[in-house]
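Appendix B, example 12.
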Amino acid sequence: KQCQRAHGSAFSASAPAQAIHMQWLIGADQLKEYASSPGKYRGFCGRCGSQLYSRVDAIPAILRLRVGALEKPLGKIAAQHVHVAAQSDWFQITDSLPQFDKTERTNDPH
C-alpha cells in the first residue's frame, strides 16, 4: 500500500541496482531523500519531484530504481510481482509471472 500511495498507481515498477555501479551523470546536486518509514528512504529530484529510487538500511548496497524515470530501455522484461497480498482491488494481474505476497530475495541481480 505504501508504494501505491507514493506513486498514485496500482503498483511501482522498479529494478534493483548495485549502488557501487551507479553514477549520476547530471543533477546529483538536486537529489533529495526522505525517510518514508524507519530504515527506508525514497530518493527524488529536488527540482521536479520525480521519484528516482528507494533504499533500505538493511541492504545498503542496493538501490531500487524507478524504471519509469530512466531515459534508455533496460533491455529486460518484468520478472515477478511482489507484495501481491496488498494489491489494489481495482487492478488484476493477468500475466503468468510468479507472484509473491512479499519481497523475495533471490540471487538473481536482475
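The domain at 2-71 is CATH 2.170.150.70 (Metal Binding Protein, Guanine Nucleotide Exchange Factor; Chain A). The helical segments are 2-7.
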